[in-house]
Amino acid sequence: INVEERRRIRRQDMETEEEEADLRDDLAPRFDDKFVQYDLRVYMLVSSISPLMVWYHDGYMRSVRPALHNGYYGFKLDEHVLSFDQYQYYLASNQMTGAHFLDTVIRPYVSKVIEYIVHSARSDITNATRASASKAHSQLFALNFVTSENFEMKFVGISGDASEKGFFVEHGNIDAIIANMKETLRELVLEMRTAPIAFLRMKRGDTFGNFSLVFSEMEEYQYGKKYDPCKEIGFAVKRSRMFVSREHLAKVADLQNFVEKQHASHLREMKKYVAKRWDYCKWKKSKEEQASCIRSTVTLRYKNYVQKERIPYDPNYVGNKIRELQASHRPGKVPSWKEAAGDTGDT
After folding, report:
1. How far is Cα 190 from Cα 76, in angstroms, rounded to an integer?
2. Which of the residues 20, 36, 42, 319 has an alpha carbon 20 to 30 A from that of 3?
3. How much is the mean pLDDT over the chain?
C-alpha cells in the first residue's frame, strides 16, 4: 500500500473513531450517579399471561448517601425508608415540589417504564413453554429506580426473585403497605383464575385494591391498540435515556406552579382573617381602641404567615398594617344591623 493509501485509511479510521466518540457522548445518560438522593422501589405484578395482564403497585423510597449507593443492589440497606405518601408530604411541606408530584410525574413515568419492559420482554413472558405449563401463571417483580437531587429519575434494574434479600424491606413506615399488597395480590390472582371475565372491560389506570392496571391484552384486543414506544416514552427511549428529564420536571413545575399558588394561598388566608376582624374593630370610637382591638389578630396571622412562608419576621409589620387599615377606613354612621343588635362600637 502506498503512502497516499495509508493516509486515506488513517483519515477514515480517525473519522470513524470521532463518530463513535460522538455516538457514545450522544447516548450517554446525563444522569450523574454521584448525585443520587433516593432509591425508589415499585412492584410490577403479572397476574396472568393468557391473557397477559400487568399491574403497578407503590413501593417505597429509601434515602441514601451517595457514597453508600451501589447501583442495582442499593436496596440491601434499609435505612431511612419512606412510603410514597410520606415522601410526597416531605416534598410538598418543604416547598420542593407540588402537592401532586408523585401522581403527575413519578407514577406515570414508572407506569410507562413498566409497559415498555412488558412489551420488550413480551415474547419471553408469554412463551409457549410457560403458557402451556400454566395459563394462569403469575409473578411479582421489583423495579428499582434512583432519583437525583434535581428530582431526575432513572431506571436501574428489575428483579423477579421474591426470596432475595431486600425484595421486601421490613420497616415500620411500610410494613402495613407491604402486608396489604401481599393480601391484595392473592385476591387478585385468585379472582383472575376463577373469574377472568370480571376483568374483561378493565382499562389502563383501573384499579384492584392498590394495584393499578398498566397493560391488558384484552383491552389491546378489544380496542385494537398498538404499542408505540416512540409515542409512549418518546425521546427518552430514542436516546436510550430511560429517566425523567430536567425539562419534563420544569414543565410539570410550571403547570403546577406550586410555590406561587401556595404563596397566594397563605397571603389570602392572612388577609381574610384580618379583614374579618377589622370589620368589627373599625367601628371603635378612637384609633387607640381600634389598634387595641385588631392588634392580636394581625400579630397572630402574621406569625402564622411567616412560619408557612419561611421568611424573616418584620417587627414593623404589625404597626404598619394597623396604620394602613386605619387610613383606609372612613368613619361614618354605624351600620343599621349593628344598631339593631345593640352594638354601637363601644365594646
Report:
1. 31
2. 20
3. 75
